[in-house]
Amino acid sequence: MKSKAIRILIVDDHPALRLGLRALFANEPDMMVVDDTGDGAEALPLYERHRPDIVLMDLRLPGMSGVEAILAIRHQFPDARIIVNTTYDADEDIHRAIQSGAKSYLLKDMPKELILDIVRSVHAGHEVLPSQVEARLKERMARPELTRREMSVMELLAKGTSNKEIADFLRISEPAVKFRIQRIFTKLGAADRTSAVIAALRHGIIHLD
């Protein structure tokens, strides 16, 4: 056992990816994987059991999302060092992850050397973002944020719901729905429902999975 190794917990629902990461870290004398899981809900109990130095966390997980798992871990362990490792590179996904307390954000197609460097940097106490991720985050910070009610309207718009149906579902008036839709268009730079949905999907504000 590597007594001074960086102890890593992997949370990802793809078995092949977990195996690949295990193999990657096994080749590093200063790293070791203490456990892995494909279920977001298991992340907190595994963290409690192993108290790893680093958690590699995917965003789309069964049982509990990656952001929810990050929040759950950091609620009990504020000093937890969590790195998101995902295929999702939309600016809203990055923003939500960093807001939840992730120390870095990796994309699964990034070079292995970068993954190793960031694991070491975060373990050393740094918060570091790859340049392309940082650029996306800056893009997000420049965009007005949708309110919670606007998010609810946006999700229903993506399902093709009519104004009357949205009003009935949210228990608000149709004029209130129209007002919020116009606000959404303005914030997303959209001219109509279709372009608003496309923009929301591109930014990661909504997902169709």
Fold topology:
Layout: E1 6-11, H1 15-26, E2 31-37, H2 43-50, E3 54-57, H3 66-76, E4 82-86, H4 91-100, E5 104-107, H5 112-123, H6 131-141, H7 148-158, H8 163-170, H9 174-188, H10 193-203
Parallel strand pairs: 1-2, 1-3, 3-4, 4-5
Helix pairs in contact: 4-6, 7-9, 8-9, 9-10
Structural write-up:
Strand 3, helix 3 (66-76) and strand 4 form a beta-alpha-beta unit. Helices cover 52% and strands 12% of the residues. It has a 5-stranded parallel beta sheet, with helices on both faces. The protein starts with 5 loop residues before the first strand and ends in a 6-residue tail after the last helix. With 209 residues, it is of the alpha/beta class. It has 2 domains: 6-141, Rossmann fold (3-Layer(aba) Sandwich), CATH 3.40.50; 148-203, Winged helix-like DNA-binding domain superfamily/Winged helix DNA-binding domain (Arc Repressor Mutant, subunit A, Orthogonal Bundle), CATH 1.10.10. The radius of gyration is 19 Å and the shape is elongated.
CATH class of the largest domain: Alpha Beta
Which blocks of ≥5 consecutive residues have pLDDT under 50? none
Please tally the β strands and state the result. Answer: 5
Tell me the radius of gyration. 19 Å
What shape does the CA trace take?
A: elongated
Mean pLDDT across all residues, rounded? 92
Count of helices? 10
Helix content: 40-55%
What separation lies between the terminal Cα atoms?
A: 40 Å
Alpha-beta content class: alpha/beta
Q: Estimate nothing, just give the exact number of structural domains.
A: 2
CATH architecture of the largest domain: 3-Layer(aba) Sandwich
Relevant CATH superfamily of the largest domain:
Response regulator
Main pleated-sheet profile: 5 strands, parallel
**CATH fold-level label of the largest domain:** Rossmann fold
Percent of residues in β-strands: 5-15%
Strands of the widest sheet, in order across it, are 2-1-3-4-5
Q: What is the element string, with H for helices and E for strands?
A: EHEHEHEHEHHHHHH
